[in-house]
């Protein structure tokens, strides 16, 4: 549970923290969309370098950001294995025979698995930076503002924003509660960390049941508190902090728009300008073709 960084806020003053929450959400959406259009390993390297610079500017320790990768490590490995074993196109690199069953690992399968793992890593790191540099209140207020056009089709945007705000605020509390319950169960002699996968799932039952009870109790107390304060989720409620777009927000947004344009040009323009080399079935696209041709010119 300590490896989950989503919903956690790292309080520090930085340029990234000062960017308008609405702008950060738009930049994150542009980043997440553009990640799926990356085709060259050169662009992947460029994106990781860009994220490294953004993390350095945000003054959030790299250790905290990288914890989010540890939380999805199993999903990354599982996705990579599925892509490797179930991609049949390309040249066979390793044939695996299991009795009458033959599984062919191809070069395109390996290439696709690596790129999918890199995409997942970029997505998780990008979303982690958003939540680590934006308070839950700012995040939900910004989402409410961006979703405001949906009120014209009778969608209760304010209610949805309140639900998301409460959910984000519950995440750190539930993580702390889970740690306390696990330590209490270990003190009573419960064996939670050892054993195979199914034994670990069975051992988590004594943790999940009190956790759900605690979560329902917190929800009930919160409902009573809202009712005691005569809370009414109406659209006429004012905000303590009013969003105002600054010049730095515009510069940051334009930078991400240029980054998105660069990725689309890499996919649809750069690769079409040069003929892809024949590397025995290995897929070379976008800027990788330029790097390969430059390398050949230098080495002769």
Quaternary structure: single chain
Binned, the helix content reads: 55-70%
Question: How would a textbook summarize the main sheet?
Answer: 2 strands, antiparallel
- The value of Rg in angstroms is 24 Å
What class would the helix/strand composition place it in?
Answer: mainly alpha
The helix/strand series, from N terminus to C terminus, equals: HHHHHEEHHHHHHH
Distance between the termini: 53 Å
- Quick one: overall form? globular
| Number of strand elements | 2
Major sheet strand order: 1-2
Approximately how much beta-strand content do the residues carry?
Answer: under 5%
How many domains in all? Answer: 2
Number of helices: 12
Low-pLDDT sequence parts: none
Mean pLDDT: 80
Describe the structure.
The mean pLDDT is about 80. A two-stranded antiparallel ribbon has the order 1-2. It is built from twelve helices and two strands; from the N terminus they run H-H-H-H-H-E-E-H-H-H-H-H-H-H. The protein starts with 14 loop residues before the first helix and ends with a helix. Helix 2 packs antiparallel against helix 6 (about 105-130) and helix 5 runs antiparallel to helix 6 (about 105-130). The protein has about 300 residues and is mainly alpha-helical.
């Amino acid at each position: 549970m300590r490896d989950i960084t989503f919903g956690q806020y790292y309080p520090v003053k930085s340029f990234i923290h000062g960017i308008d929450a609405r702008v950060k959400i738009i930049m994150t959406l542009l980043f997440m969309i553009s990640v799926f259009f990356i085709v060259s390993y050169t662009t992947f390297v460029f994106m990781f370098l860009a994220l490294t610079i953004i993390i350095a500017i945000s003054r959030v320790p790299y250790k905290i950001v990288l914890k989010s990768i540890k939380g999805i490590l199993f999903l990354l490995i599982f996705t990579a294995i599925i892509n490797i074993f179930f991609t049949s196109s390309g040249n066979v690199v390793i044939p695996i025979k299991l009795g009458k069953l033959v599984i062919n690992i191809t070069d395109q399968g390996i290439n696709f698995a690596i790129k999918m793992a890199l995409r997942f890593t970029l997505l998780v790191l990008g979303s982690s930076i958003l939540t680590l540099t934006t308070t839950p209140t700012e995040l939900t207020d910004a989402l409410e503002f961006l979703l405001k056009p949906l009120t014209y089709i009778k969608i209760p945007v304010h209610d949805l924003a309140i639900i998301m705000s409460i959910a984000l605020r519950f995440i750190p509390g539930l993580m702390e509660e889970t740690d306390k319950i696990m330590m209490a169960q270990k003190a009573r002699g419960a064996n939670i960390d050892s054993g195979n996968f199914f034994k670990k799932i069975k051992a988590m039952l004594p943790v999940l049941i009190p956790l759900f009870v605690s979560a329902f109790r917190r929800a009930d107390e919160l409902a009573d508190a809202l009712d005691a304060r005569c809370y009414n989720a109406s659209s006429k409620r004012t905000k303590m902090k009013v969003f105002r777009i600054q010049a730095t927000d515009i510069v940051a947004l334009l930078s991400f728009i240029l980054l998105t344009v660069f990725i689309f040009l890499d996919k649809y323009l750069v690769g079409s300008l040069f003929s892809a080399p024949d590397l025995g079935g290995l897929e070379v696209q976008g800027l990788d073709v330029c790097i390969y041709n430059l390398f050949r010119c230098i080495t002769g």
